[in-house]
Amino acid sequence: MAMDVLQWSRHYRCFPGQGGFDVAGLVRHAVRAGYTGPLSLEVFNDVFRQADAGRTAVDALRSLRSLEEAAQLSTLPAPAVPSGVAFAELAAADPEPVRVLLSRLGFARTGRHTGKPVELRQQGAARSLLNAAGADRREGPARAVRSRAMADADGGLRIALNVAPGPGDRGARPQHIALATDDIVATVRRIREGGAALLPVPDNYHDDLEARHDLAPGTLATLRELGILYDRDEDGEFWHCYTATLGRVFFEIVQRTGGYRGYGARNAAVRLAAQHTADRLGLPART
Fold first, then answer.
1. I want to staple 278 with a disulfide (CB 3.0 to 4.6 A). Which of 73, 158, 261, 283 is the partner?
2. What are 183-203's pLDDT values in tens digits?
3. How far, CA to CA in Å, does 185 sit from each of 142, 191, 200, 229, 236?
4. pTM (2 d.p.)
């Protein structure tokens, strides 16, 4: 964003370690000069004001601990380097509908906890824990959502963090899990045949897509038929679609071709509007 220093200072400050300034070097010099007092954070940021205060405080404490390590004020063990996602946990007070959806997506039960109502479901390298002890309260995605995606160098680990203004009740936050495929058309046809409900995409989305991209008529027809969204950049293409929201969880099926490293951000507004409309009007999902 093109802003002057005053706008950045009043609205877009970040915690130590999240920006480009050498805050650790400044603290190191201050401590070596004899400073022994406390360190405090004064962060003017519109996102933090709108977000849950508890989560922001946890993020702040994490940044101070990282600053302490970076400034060489303490010795901490070397951080572990993540190599992928071990599992995604789904909390549901009534697990049966989620269990059915996972089965229709191709996830088979491969384990069960001996002392808790938790079961492991797996499809290839993708693993999900279904936890029947969690709260389950539906909330339509009707508010503004800020999103920031993170990935390691080779794209093997991708995590998208979403923040929406509102109460800090974890039970009210939708759970969104993306599953990668090498052939999204075949995958969508298979899960539709299995009875999984997909989010209906408005027809005018694909009309707009036809105007923005030079897609083959057959490709466009397939995207329209299956409710698949599309994006591209200078490196490659991105194909994705969503299941209907069940309770407060939905799945995204994605396929990347070429060197595309984004997340289809230009389609987010279409997805949010479709989810909100389907939730508010009780529209049937596409099957």
1. 283
2. 999 999 999 998 888 898 988
3. 29, 10, 16, 11, 17
4. 0.72
